[in-house]
Amino acid sequence: MTESTVSPRGIFKRNTIGMKTDPVTSEVEAGRLSFFCETLGETNPIHHDAEAARAAGFPGVVAALTVPMLVDTEVARTTDRAGIDRVFSLSARFLAITPVNAKLECSGEGVERFEQDGVPHLRIALHAQITNAEGQSVKSLAGEAIIKVEQYA
Asked: Which positions ≥6 away from 37 have C-beta within 8 Å?
């Protein structure tokens, strides 16, 4: 979200409902994807072996489902310039497989302010769109994040 949605004191402004974050973009590169999968202990060969991916019906190596979720976590984390400790919850529905060499673009939109146990929260609708090497775009993820905010202005 733009600087105008957060005051210098860190107080989240009420006008954020309906406002959209600036998109976070990431290229899904084969080497980084392989490293990511190894780090997570993801052993499914479709994530790092092109022949195995083709045998499974994919045009090539595909990203683990958690890749778009990680980029959307960055969207949620930066929504009110707070640390990851302010992200109360994340949920997602995966809609498409993310191929290698695709551009992944994630964004969010403030949809609801509410209080839980006296603590103000903001519900953010999360979206992920992938554009493959051929220029075709599809929605790959829909979800939401609940962010704890200090207070509302």
From this structure: 43, 44, 47, 48, 64
Q: What is the pTM of this model?
A: 0.71
Q: How far apart are CA 117 and CA 119, in angstroms?
A: 6
Strand order in the sheet with 87-94: 24-27, 103-116, 119-131, 137-148, 87-94
Over residues 21-68, the pLDDT tens digits come to 778 888 888 888 888 888 888 889 998 888 999 999 988 888 887 777
State which amino acid sits at residue 36. Answer: F
User: How does pLDDT run across 135-149, given as a tens digit for each residue?
Assistant: 888 888 898 988 887
By three-state DSSP, how is residue 103 classified?
A: strand
Three-state secondary-structure class, residue 41 = coil
